[in-house]
Specification:
Order of helices and strands: EEHEEEEHHEEEEEEEEEEEEEE
Number of strands: 20
Distance between the termini: 51 Å
Number of helices: 3
Structural class: mainly beta
Length: about 350
């Protein structure tokens, strides 16, 4: 078979919060290190379109096509769209259920295919639909559907499309592996609450401009339970206790961090406008965490995050300045509604939090 290896469609994207050497990119050409555009404590913005069309990547595509009847007709086109708007034949090919509103990355390569002399040559496209899986620590790419298109003016169009349709799904693993290698380099060493894409969806595929992945960093997630820090009942009152709950993107689970001094910060809930503190300024183990009117001079509202090392893999301790103790999930609970408390800092996962 002459079909191109679709792995070349997914370049190892060189946008990372750390400097990345060419040696870190398996099977890649040399790249220039670049930095993620980010705004501390709010969102991270990553351009996922431009790197697909680097000269090195296009040359690699041409190398894969050399000696085959196919040749590249242009650059790699990247767009995003809601799952509900993808063509009808694509949907049954998906292996996982998706909501119509789920965003999907559309990666397309236009090819020209030489055919036998008795029919006209065929132009077409190979398309992959890639979902992002944000359920674990490292964001993953799920290549979950595909499409092939031809211009349908040649007597050979049907047979060419049949070849593409047989071969394209067999490359899922190749594409997935390279997507995930790229995402590992792309994304900061953090757990993100939600993600979205820019520009906003306007009703049709726009693959002419840049596509930015927007990672929202405003939730605080327990590594142990994978539940979100939450103001009990969404209360706006002083003294409302802090619990863990299923992550639901409400303001009761969104926190803004404001620096105060010496590496400490206030943690302000977006729904109530109040700040996290230890109840009654307690210094004992087991004191609960609550919210109260923000006071930057009050050390009971000062917090700092520390990477304890070991098996933390990006999660951190959240330490109160007044008590010197860590926020924990008591009793190693994984149930929603468990009230958060403080305890002497230890290396257990119940003391590890993402996004602090």
């Amino acid at each position: 078979m002459w079909l191109l290896n679709p792995a070349v469609l997914i370049a190892l994207i060189p946008f990372t919060s750390k400097l990345v050497s060419a040696a870190a990119l398996p099977n890649s050409d040399a790249v220039t290190s670049q930095a993620i555009e980010r705004r501390d404590n709010t969102n991270v913005f990553i351009d996922i379109s431009a790197p697909f069309n680097r000269n090195e990547v296009l040359a690699r595509i041409d190398g894969f096509l050399k000696g085959t009847p196919a040749s590249r007709r242009g650059g790699v086109q990247v767009a995003w769209m809601p799952w509900g708007k993808v063509p009808a034949p694509v949907k049954p090919r998906a292996t996982k259920p998706h909501k119509d509103t789920d965003p999907v990355i559309r990666v397309s390569l236009k090819v020209h295919v030489n055919t036998p002399s008795w029919c006209l040559a065929v132009d077409g496209s190979i398309i992959y639909y890639i979902f992002l899986d944000n359920s674990e620590f490292r964001m993953k790419g799920v290549v979950d559907s595909w499409d092939t298109l031809t211009d349908l003016v040649s007597a050979c169009s049907s047979s060419v499309n049949d070849q593409l349709r047989k071969m394209v799904p067999t490359k899922y693993d190749d594409v997935k592996n390279i997507v995930n290698e790229g995402l590992t380099l792309l994304t900061p060493n953090e757990h993100f609450g939600t993600y979205s894409f820019l520009p906003a969806w306007t009703g049709s595929v726009n693959d002419k401009g840049p596509v930015k992945l927007v990672l929202e960093r405003d939730t605080i997630v327990s590594r142990w339970s994978d539940l979100c820090m939450d103001v009990q009942g969404g209360s706006t009152a002083n003294g409302a206790l802090i619990q863990q709950w299923e992550c639901n993107e409400t303001n009761a689970q969104k926190f803004d961090k404001t620096p105060v001094a010496d590496g400490y910060f206030l943690i302000r809930n977006r729904g109530s406008g109040r700040c996290l503190a230890v109840s009654d300024a307690g210094t004992q183990n087991g004191a609960l965490i609550w919210q109260y009117d923000c006071d930057s001079s009050n050390q009971n509202q000062h917090w700092r995050s520390t990477d304890p090392g070991g098996n933390s893999v990006g999660a951190k301790w959240l330490i109160n300045r007044h008590s010197g103790k860590c926020v924990e999930v008591p009793g190693w609970a994984t149930t929603k509604g468990t009230l958060l408390a403080q305890l002497d800092c230890v290396s257990g996962w119940k003391h590890f939090w993402y996004n602090v």
